[in-house]
TrEMBL record:
Main subcellular location: membrane
Record's keyword terms, sorted: Cell membrane, Membrane, Transmembrane, Transmembrane helix, Transport
Domain ABC transmembrane type-1 per the UniProt entry, residue ranges: 73-270
Biological classification of the source: Bacteria, Bacillati, Bacillota, Bacilli, Bacillales
Protein name per its UniProtKB record: ABC transporter permease subunit
InterPro entries: MetI-like, MetI-like_sf
Keyword Nucleotide-binding listed: no
Amino acid sequence: MKGFFIEKCIEFCICILVIIAISYVPFVFWGNTSLSFTTFLQRLFIAGPAIHNNPMVIRQVPFWDVIWEPYMYSGIILLASTVLTVVMATGFSFGYVLSSLKVKKAIERCLVLIESIPDLLLIFMLQLLFVWLYKQTGVNFVNIYAFGSKQAYFLPIVTMSLVPALHFFRIMVLFLVEEQHKPYVEFARAKGLSRKYILFVHLFRNVIYHLFNHLQSTFLFMISSLLLVEAAFNINGYMSFILKPLALQPVTFAWWIFLLFIPFYTMFTLAQFQIKRMTGGLANEK
């Protein structure tokens, strides 16, 4: 346990140093800033970031006052999409493994069809679907766009989850099918254990650590698609904040990355620790 957290602390410190470097160096060599590195560090950790909220106003405003609401908005969408991705992929994979060969072929055809649809077209189709439902029923089921005080959650979360869930589903099925051919599964079947029990208790437990590693790369893919989702649904979110020229400053850019990196790195580290403890990985590392 101690070695795990020491390794993660070293990894965390290295990542922080890399973020500081990539937040300062490009602005010095290719930007218009004359900010010294010492001043940059003082503003980064002592004075705190500030931005020009309006190009016509010289007065600076605290970075936290501007970023907090978009950060929470996008954070909710990102976390909910991640949870929905895992739930859908797990449910689909369990159903696929337990289904007959004919059902498996039908599922594979549907996957190929859905994966061939571009993300923007998928978003547009979902928006048209709810517009059509509104015209038919007169009931506004969900907010199609974020406008004013109205915020859109359902459609952004669903559209961000579909493609990652399909990719994660394929990975999960590959691991589960590969695990089915191992000797302990044959032994469990010989003891009379049901397919569902073997799948839920033994197979999933043995592949969960490998699935977690792939979930991290899936999560990075979802972060990269968050900007597209914010633009498609007119969301004034966390990713679109960095496109504002007035916000693109060394200190602001560093804290923008910190807010994205620190919470989710901590979350995935704690989840990895819990999974290793549950599967016996920590005992094997001693």
